[in-house]
Structure of Sulfatase N-terminal domain-containing protein:
Amino acid sequence: MKLLAYLPPLPPLLFAVLTVGGLASKALHIALHIHSLPFLYFVLYAPTLVLPDLLVIAFVRVLLHTPSPETKLQWVWACLGGLLSLIVWSASSIQFGFFMQTGAEVAWAASNSFLSDPAAMKILLSGISTVCAAATVLALVAWLAHAKLYHWTGLGLQAIQDLFKGSYKMRYTLLGVPNKSWINKSWLTTMDLRTVRRIAIAVSLCSSLIFLELTRPSIPYDHLSGALPLTLLDAFTKKSSTTGGCRQTPMKFPLWTDVNTGFMTNSWSRPSWLPQNPPPGFSHYEHSPDERAEKDNPAWYLCNDNEPGFYNPKTDPLKISNLGGDIYEPLKAAFNEHSVEIDHVILLTLESGRKELFPMQQGTPMFDALLESHTEEHRDEAIDRLVTMTPIAQMLTGEYSTDSKGEKVDLSGANWHDPAEEGMGGLNVRGALTGSTLTFKSILGSHCGVQPLPVDLLEETGLEIYQPCLPQLFELFNRAKNPVSELLERDDTASGALKNPWKSVFMQSITDDYDRQDVLNKNMGFKHNVVKSTLTSRKSKYRAKGEEINYFGFAETELKPYVRDLFEEAANNRTRMFLSHVTSTTHHPWDTPDDFQLEHYMGDQGNINHKLMNSYLNSARFVDHWLGEIMTMLDETGIANSTLIVVVGDHGQAFSEDNKDMTGTYENGHIGNFRVPLVFRHPHMPRINIDVNATSISIIPTILDLLVQSHSLDARDSEMASALLPDYQGQSLIRPFIPYLKERHDSPIETPSDIDVRSSRKTQPKEGHRTRYNWNLGIINAGGSMVSVTAAGSPYRLVLPLKEGFEYVFSDLNQDPGELHPIKSWTMDDLVDDVLSKYGEAAAEWLEDAGLVGKWWVNEQRRIWGYREA
Ligand SMILES: *[C@@H]1O[C@H](CO)[C@@H](O)[C@H](O)[C@H]1NC(C)=O
Ligand SMILES: *[C@@H]1O[C@H](CO)[C@@H](O)[C@H](O)[C@H]1NC(C)=O
Ligand SMILES: *[C@@H]1O[C@H](CO)[C@@H](O)[C@H](O)[C@H]1NC(C)=O
């Protein structure tokens, strides 16, 4: 009872919670963007930024005007005011909680897709403690300040009210004396001079505010002035994109190109290699010529709903084919000797797999950042601990780490030893980037060779994937064989083995409920899935023994009996295996099973908390060990010599150690989220290091090329694979990668007139030769806010915003490989100006092209996918 006495009346407290929550949220919002605002403008427009908050505060203060409501109406107002206050308080707490976890802002527009997804809710709930902490702090401040806030705002509102009353009285008097001018002295003296002065001040204040509000640039100030709870309404309006789908004018490719981007030529006929009943995924090979020509027209998607899209490799101005190039000499020799046998394919997707960790070695910006957490005298020790973290990755890539003394690290303690001969092991790509920092969008690239849709979350699941995915390709090979006669009497001769049917299996130890992944797997053609529900089901052969380690499910090691069974089946049952396995322990919150011994990789230097990074590094070591177990099982079942293993990261993972301001992948364009390992491992393929900026869309073309060139397909399959290969967008990595073409053009560059090309191009491209880049586009989690634009063979990088509230970011990765000092700006024009003065003409020209290509691509992807915003 006594405690109750300390509780203030509710309305003032609720009001204070609203004021503190709203203003704190606004302060955070502005603080996150302040570095990119010109100081003078910011000062000038600052009042307009808080105006909406002040209006909300005044409105709620009016609703809560009495500390103890009595009449019914007062109760209704008070309840409404209270509700708004609680909403603002919660929303503000969520914003702060989210900021403390990721450094990013909550995008309310994306929240409804999250709320309808149980697994996504769990992710949100994992941050609940920071949200609660934020809520407590806000409430405490509100409690301390409630009396004063309530009182002052009351006084303020009262004054305004009096002012109006005064002016009303004044007008009344005015009307009462119609014949006299209002500047009449005798009238003025009868009025309260102070009131007049106050009104004059109020009117001029209001009009200057309105003037500022009307004249301020809409970007970024409109976004910055958004106030709680009004911004929450975004969640109920459909996402709006500046390059929206259907209603936009079609875009021609904005740069000069000698690719014919016009209509299809009508030389199409049903491919002779296509079986009568192709599996799903090949339907677009059955379009009639008219249909194809129609869909190839950029104007087609203007107003066609519910129609699958269409991709035509022949008219894609971004596609550069390297299939005319020779296969790397040592590989060619191995293929000619028929020594590379690929009966099985494993595609390992490493969750949050950063290239810097595969293997962990010295000399990366990340490694330097890790060392900085240690004092000088402990650094050598730290180096030696770090470089032994991922021994399996060292063997798979052939990149052997050196220790603090510069000596090769001893790998004898690892749980697998590479039986491949010296100099063998396959292709190791250095410089690969992911196509999306959202896991499943990235998986679409690696499994289907497509570029995902630049919209939030897995909208692709409602559409037809525009290229056949790996399981569908293998199913095509199965279909092409006479199912009855040949499968029944499979023979064991070498060429007979090529007639064995493929079996595609997907495995992960976590749930596939998250964001329609189960639908995606089905659409990609997986019929056999081992996921968390398999591990928990009573009907399953092996049930999980350990505890769940994160909000998605179990550690990968629970899959071990399933993996072994599959390998044994592949070895003994005349089956060709395609296994796709996605690891999961390396996902936030980076927990590992209890019996896994944790190491201290991080020191305590620097003013950031290294706990998360330490957990991440430990989980990476856990997964490295798990890869060792998989490799051992391959050896034990005897299929290692006939299995191609592709290892790729789904995306990277930026930490505070990379960039203090922004961590995680969500709406964070940092390069640490993009660099991934990419390895094509086969013990009988010579080791080749490939230094190119390829992306995971090269995986399918490379696998197909490898299968054909290594004679691992029979004649019919080989014909189909060779016919399909040129239709994929990516380049094959067994031939030299073409980062850009120098194209000759004699006429001056013609600028397409129907798109918005800046008239003031500072750098008119020179006549003669022009570089056509292999552009790499990367979609940033959750999909619809930003796109990363890079070009193979160019050090520059642009992060292109697709929505209000995000900035244009430029960096030069040669000079700043860790992207510590990017240039940011709210408009492309300003960014180009900045880059021109700091990096010169070539960089500015590249940047302009990148911006045009990025915008064009975002539109084009919608057409290719047949996506129309609802
Ligand atoms: C072996 O293959 C046959 C025919 O495809 C299949 O019916 C059987 O289940 C397979 N056995 C195992 C152990 O996978
Ligand atoms: C795999 O190939 C190696 C040569 O690289 C050979 O020594 C080994 O015996 C082969 N293993 C099997 C199971 O055939
Ligand atoms: C592009 O590839 C080169 C060569 O491997 C590499 O040095 C560079 O870091 C890569 N770029 C990015 C953004 O990873």
Observations:
- The pocket of 2-acetamido-2-deoxy-beta-D-glucopyranose (ligand 3) is lined by residues 430-431, 433, 671, 675, 691, 693, 790, 813 (CB under 6 Å).
- DSSP finds 27 helices and 15 strands in the chain.
- The CA atoms of residues 480 and 563 lie 28 Å apart.
- The chain has three domains: 2-236, 329-452+501-727, 740-869.
